[in-house]
Amino acid sequence: MGVGSPAREIVYILNNRETFFQRISGIILFLDSSAPLPSVSDQNTYYLSKWFKQNSLVFVSGDHPIWTDNGGTKKPGKRFGAVRKSGVEGGVNDMLEKHREEMVEFVGARMGNGRGR
Fold it and tell me: What is the pTM of this model?
């Protein structure tokens, strides 16, 4: 799990360590309006963007530039993961609280305890 601007370091590791994604079952990122939206690159592993889209939750604050820069009509591509617009504008602490149950379900699904989606 990554929160804020340092979350991009997790994606950096995904991009630069070919087998890292095989060791983890999912990634959760929380990005506020000042955090850049990290993306994976398929340079080393041609299916990494597909894996990232299927095995991530990327919560982005409602006031992040990604929602206004493209006119609000185009959803970010799979190389950005499973991006979700948070109803929270501003800090990540409020986002963590709001999306707690979604995180629990996501982790539960990957741990095999039946609480998954």
Answer: 0.84
